Amino acid sequence: MNTINYWNYPTEIYSGSGAIAELLPFCQLQGYQHILIVTDQGITKLGHVSSLYAALVAAGKVVTVFDQVESNPSTDNVALGVKTYAEHPQDVIIALGGGSVLDAAKAISLVAADPNGLENFDWNVAFHRYPTLSSFPKLAITPLIMVPTTAGTGSELSREAVITNAVDHVKHVITHQGLLAKAVFLDPDLTVALPAHLTAATGVDALTHHLEAYFSPLNHPMSSGIALEGIRLIAQHLPLAVAEPTNLVARENMLVASAMAAVAFQKGLGGVHALAHALGGRYKKHHGLLNAILLPYVLKANAATIADKVAPVNAVLGLSGSTLDHLLDWVLTFRQQLSIPHSLAEIGIESVEGALIGQHAAADTSSADTNPIAFTAEEYEAIFLHAVAGVLV
Description:
Blueprint (H helix, E strand, L loop, with lengths): L4 E4 L3 E4 L7 H8 L3 E5 L2 H6 L1 H11 L3 E5 L8 H12 L5 E6 L1 H15 L3 H4 L2 H7 L14 E5 L11 E5 L6 E5 L7 E4 L9 H20 L5 H23 L4 H17 L6 H13 L3 H15 L1 H4 L4 H7 L6 H14 L16 H10 L1 H4 L8 H13 L4
Parallel strand pairs: 2-9, 3-4, 3-5, 5-6, 6-9
Antiparallel strand pairs: 1-2, 7-8
Helix pairs in contact: 4-5, 8-9, 8-10, 8-12, 9-10, 9-14, 11-12, 11-16, 12-15, 12-18, 16-18
């Protein structure tokens, strides 16, 4: 008999092999009758959508499916989802998929409640207008249920969504307290079909979340503690999840570590994400892979500020030394073990737009504001160029 763990933080979380079976009873308990499933065509082809759809319809639910979510969803993609939402009354939105799907579902629910929501709650302006969660205006946002099929973004437990502007190709972080999911279902069975290279990239994305949160200059001891445990779990279980795709223990622990990262990064992210957002919007590359490649270059650039904070990280990793060089050596070896490319050039990114990438990274206040060092656009450009060339300096 499968063991399903139940937690509340404050979202209700069901974790374990077969956890998806608890979704229908949850919907019954909440009285949800009209349901929109947001997903992508890759997940549809795997059969996960048809299974969920059949169970919900058999229970008398009225179910609509929007499976047109793109990788790196854009404002146009969100508008298409809102159109589908508007054609039918909806009691709840179920997001079934990776980080792009989870982000798109949040954006759809926000725009359905406020047609100008993507502009009104863009991170760059939202926290100037609304300095605390309680100061955000209340909106009739449709409740969200999150069912991640990758272990990386942590979007299932965050109040944020990352959406690319279809006009200027710049990624924007959208935030509102109403985007926190009503429930999350972490079922490792839904992740076993994920290819090894995506398991690795999304896993190092989660690792990046924890490391950046831990090194953030903000004072949030609870998040720092969660980050350290998340780092430990990923170091232990990600190689197994890549090497043994059907290892449900490793898969579940990676889902848990990914979700924990969203709790950890309440403390903030950093320069890795600032650059990854800039690059993802311009080049449409996989967000997790960008983070995985950029991580050691940004750690090295932050050395002057983070060197004296490294010892607890190295301790949970079981490293023999307590310096930043020891951590960097571990990161490089870990990435190599997972077949993560060492440079941006290896995934087809060239240095020609270095100045623009630096400007966009510095302007990404959702991440740059909590980097240990307030890098200028020129400094971000230099880090980017090092990552293109594969040179750690």
